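Side project, low priority. Logging it here so it doesn't get lost.
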Amino acid sequence: MDLFSASFNQHEVAPLAERMRPRSLEEYIGQSHILGHGKLLRRAIEADRVSSLILYGPPGTGKTSLAQVIAAKTAAHFIRINAVTSGVKEIREIILQATNNLHLYGKRTLVFCDEVHRFNKGQQDALLPAVENGTITFIGATTENPFFELNSALLSRSTLFHLELLLPVEIQRGLEHALQDAERGLGRYQVEITPDAWEHWHNYANGDLRRALNALELAVLTTAPENGIRRITLAIAEESIQQRSIRFDKAGDNHYDIISALIKSMRGSDPDAALYWLAVLLEAGEDPRFIMRRIIVHASEDVGLADPMVMLQAHAAANALEWLGLPEARIPMAQAVLAICTAPKSNSAVASIDRALDYVRKHPTGEVPAHLKDAHYPGADKLGHGQGYLYPHNYPNHWIEQPYLPPSIQEQTFYVPSEMGKELTKAMP
């Protein structure tokens, strides 16, 4: 079946966001970085020379709508398949049909698959030869990182386009278009919207035009007219979107991107950014223990001996989390994050252990010097174990020079202190 063949035949039942899907590039909103005048993808669509491509971006940014625009513009046969229900058998039938169309009628075939990240290996393998030899042009749309979800062969034969969150001005344009369109939108209603209601939608849609359109439709249809006018106030707008759309998926790459942003903000000594990403994680429902584990790791990895108290603060926050739970534990968690951000930085701990591990992996294990061997069992003295050991506490400053490394590697250095914080002033013999 052709893509969107019945999209606008059900005006009364289809959601506003579905009815307002663009019919041309002129109606398409957003993504000027790939669809602006003179851009490669725009030129390809206008010339009907679209090659295989992957559209990657958050929900509501126009991936499926862009496929609709291509479907309306192309002279090729356009087929939509479902990544979950379209099995290998159906894909092979589509390829056979595409082969016949190309050889018998000279007609190209474009195949569109939404949520392409749900394609299993068998489906991708069945599709790949036809994409390779040009029998079909493939267009996939996904909210997931395609490098994680698609095989490299399919990716290498497709051009990747990243769709970005829409700007507030673009959200506004989409909502105004829906209010003015009497055929597909809400133009048959007289609607008055207060400025603070607009602002609420801009903020809480969070770059997702579909979410904003759903909120607009709900607000308009559930507001009784007064003197023929439906007045949308902030209170009504707040009811239409009661919770901000947070871009977060525990199973997807976005989850790791936000964790990475928190870690790098702490390492980079930016307390405001670190608190922001911590708040995103907490508000999105991330497991607080997972967050706490990352905080503890980086208290050592990025601060370490430059301020040893930071590690204690991180462990204290972890203990507080177990005793308090959320929401109270957000406070000690934030304290630990701020302690990392504001502390002097040193990665000597991680650099030192990695240096030692690298050496151990590449060299035979050295012999423990005799004076360091265990001498607490009968007969150990006969083996020479412990003989010659100098007990440091018996000497001034509780230190005495003696070898601790194996004789074969006496000159090796693994710990290199930084010049930050307490590490700089730490007294070394």
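Brief comment: The domain at 31-162 is CATH 3.40.50.300 (Rossmann fold).
Revisit when time allows.
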